[in-house]
Write a structure and sequence with these properties.
By secondary structure, the chain is mostly helical. It is built from 13 helices and 3 strands; from the N terminus they run βααββααααααααααα.
């Protein structure tokens, strides 16, 4: 079945302006333009729009979505499976937060007690789920389930002070990386500071650190479209710059 832009917008519950913008940014092109100059969408475009809206619901930016869906390796069937798994994860997270709120209410009503660890359990689980959604499959393929499960357990057992420090460190990392990128020198002082902050950031997730693994992860940031889209979202070329800075930092720069 074919749809005009108006009919597709009505079917999907989005505006024709949004569909035109998706066309402009090369995210969703119409199947053809008819003799009257109207955009016409077929079944392939309908399915692609469904994927786009799934990704938007999961919180990805349009730049990230375009990078993934325009990659030659994109697999629609596999993407649907990943959508399903991620939505189940979101439901699990909501259930955990609801249970956390219910128990907090019971505490205020004097019906139970709650440890400080329990108070923040739902928020740490959210961070774990977000990491799994963004990077889980790629990292598990590269480092194995055991290493990632250990990393998640480490994060889940994090104290409130450690969680606050991780949040602060993450903000500092991205701010420093943005400033370093402006210098254009991955071996410069600012870029090396960013690489060191990246190492510190990793130690909150990894059970142990190695230069080889750090360099390998940096290379993945460039080779995998999802990682690349994330780091290049505000400034294209950032993923490669960070990779080069980390290679210098680890002493594993290729000659």
């Amino acid at each position: 079945m074919e749809y005009t832009i108006q009919k597709l917008g009505h079917l999907a519950g989005i505006s024709t302006r949004t569909l035109r913008y998706y066309d402009e940014i090369d995210l969703l092109k119409p199947a053809r333009i008819n003799s009257s100059g109207y955009r016409i969408y077929g079944q392939s475009e309908v399915d692609r729009l469904q994927h786009i809206l799934f990704y938007r619901e999961l919180g990805l930016s349009l730049e990230q979505i375009r990078g993934m869906m325009n990659a030659s390796s994109f697999d629609g069937a596999q993407a649907l499976k990943e959508h399903w798994e991620q939505l189940l994860g979101k439901r699990k997270q909501l259930d955990l937060l609801i249970a956390n709120v219910e128990k907090t209410i019971a505490v205020h009503e004097g019906r139970t007690v709650m440890t400080d660890h329990e108070k923040f359990e739902g928020f740490k689980q959210k961070l774990i789920d977000e990491n799994e959604r963004k990077y889980g499959q790629e990292i598990r393929n590269k480092y194995g389930n055991e290493a990632i499960d250990q990393s998640n357990a480490k994060l889940k057992n994090m104290t409130e002070a450690q969680h606050e420090e991780l949040t602060r460190l993450t903000d500092e990392l991205y701010a420093t990386l943005a400033e370093a990128f402006k210098t254009g020198d991955p071996g410069g002082e600012m870029a090396q500071k960013a690489a060191d902050l990246h190492k510190q950031w990793l130690t909150y997730y990894w059970s142990h650190y190695s230069k080889e693994a750090h360099a390998g992860l940096a290379q993945m940031y460039v080779e995998d479209e999802r990682f690349k889209a994330h780091y290049d979202e505000k400034q294209p070329g950032t993923a490669e710059f960070l990779r080069d800075a980390i290679l210098v930092y680890t002493g594993l720069k290729q000659s």
